[in-house]
Amino acid sequence: xxxxxxxxxxxxxxxxxxxxxxxxxxxxxxxxxxxxxxxxxxxxxx
Length: 46
Prior knowledge:
Elements: H1 8-18, H2 25-37
């Protein structure tokens, strides 16, 4: 199975957030989309 990676944009936003800066609403959506796009098990967790 192919290894999934975050794009440069998502990684840049994540670095900003880890550095203590709050993301804009658009950046938060970009991060959420990146995480969900890498989710290999679809559906709710137990």
